[in-house]
Design a protein that fits this description.
alpha/beta, TIM Barrel, 38% helix, catalytic activity, RaSEA, 4Fe-4S, metal ion binding, S-adenosyl-L-methionine
Length: 356
């Protein structure tokens, strides 16, 4: 597999300007975070190829994504929640794991079969999660049915997955691909790797016995609504052969990001929920499980329609996630769908957004 890196991408390949802006925006952060407490922990139910299962999700607070230290992705605010200083040690990370398990014991009758572990970057990046910690996490959750590990494709290697697979723990790597279109990933998302690197990482994971989950981003900045929808449909189709599950994430406006900077200067509108519906309808027969969780739906910072129908459309999306049946969308309608159709027809990337 090729070895992309933040350093190589930074030098003369078009992201220096993006990175300079992102560093300036993130420098405005004045919050601090406890290195012994996870960023977030929650219990939920997840739709998987094996059906709906209970899940425990842990977002570890690490020293931050290495790419974000260079500047990072235009929409990602998670690095702003990282611990100052660029490093969190083994003991503190295991304190975070124990805090997450304590939350589970207090709020669930039994351990969740599925555990999902995220950071602001990559669980398999040893700058964020040292080998010692990775092994201890694998041992801690060895009795669960499955574990999901967020990572960039660079770090999907046999030695880093061995801690989990050698214990007989079913393992998925969750890769933030964002789009199958290299131009959009580089110039709109400001992510440094190519689609070919995702393919290589997926093939490596599957050859070792791990599964692959891909995250795609609906409507990064600098795309019109119609362009974002078409890019997402194409991306689902191109990604499906390499991932058993595709999670389409509609962009939410996070603080200390370029998206935030554009949004409050009338240069960006989060995607319409009707756009989420359109993509799910058109990709319902993809050879992968296609899901979407519109975080912050109905808010100005999240994916939204007119405000009157947002909850109903979001409920239909949740129903689709469980049933994978596009007919659920036939049960929701709103006059604002006509406005969305006009936006799809007339909005252009050089003069957007047409409707706030």
């Amino acid at each position: 597999m090729s070895q992309p890196s933040p350093e190589g991408r930074e030098q003369g390949r078009g992201t220096a300007a993006h990175n300079a802006v992102m560093r300036e925006l993130r420098a405005q952060k004045d919050e601090t975070y406890d290195p012994t407490e996870p960023t977030r922990v929650w219990l939920d139910e997840d739709t998987t190829p094996d059906g709906v299962v209970r899940s425990l999700t842990i977002v570890l607070n690490t020293g931050g994504c290495r790419w974000a230290r260079a500047g990072g992705c235009t929409m990602c605010g998670y690095v702003a929640e990282s611990v100052e200083g660029g490093e969190v040690g083994h003991a503190a990370l295991m304190n975070q794991i124990e805090a997450a398990r304590a939350h589970e014991r207090e709020n669930a009758a039994s351990p969740a079969p599925l555990v999902k572990i995220y950071t602001s970057g990559s669980v398999l990046d040893e700058r964020e999660v040292p080998p010692e910690t990775r092994s201890a996490i694998a041992e801690t959750f060895a009795d669960r049915d499955r574990i999901v590990l967020e990572t960039l494709p660079d770090f999907v290697t046999e030695d880093r997955l061995a801690d989990f697979l050698d214990r007989g723990l079913a393992t998925d790597v969750a890769i933030g691909l964002e789009t199958a279109t290299d131009r959009v990933r580089h110039d709109c998302v400001n992510k440094y790797f190519d689609f070919a690197d995702f393919v290589d990482a997926s093939e490596t994971a599957r050859s070792l016995g791990a599964g692959v989950k891909a995250y795609l981003l609906l409507k990064p900045p600098f795309l019109a609504e119609s362009e974002a929808v078409e890019d997402m449909v194409s991306s689902v189709e191109r990604t499906a052969p390499y991932a058993h599950t595709i999670s389409m994430n509609p962009t939410t406006v996070h603080k200390y990001t370029m998206v935030d900077h554009l949004h409050f200067r009338d240069g960006y509108r989060p995607p319409w929920l009707w756009s989420v519906v359109a993509v799910l309808r058109r990709t319902a027969d993809a050879d992968a499980l296609v899901l979407s969780d519109p975080v912050g739906h109905g808010s100005d910072r999240g994916p939204h329609n007119c405000g009157e129908c947002d909850d109903r459309v979001a409920t239909a999306i949740e129903d689709f996630n469980r049933r994978q049946e596009p007919s659920v969308f036939d049960e929701v309608s709103c006059p604002c769908e006509t406005t969305w159709e006009t936006v799809m027809e007339r909005e252009t990337a050089y003069n957007q957004p047409l409707v706030r």
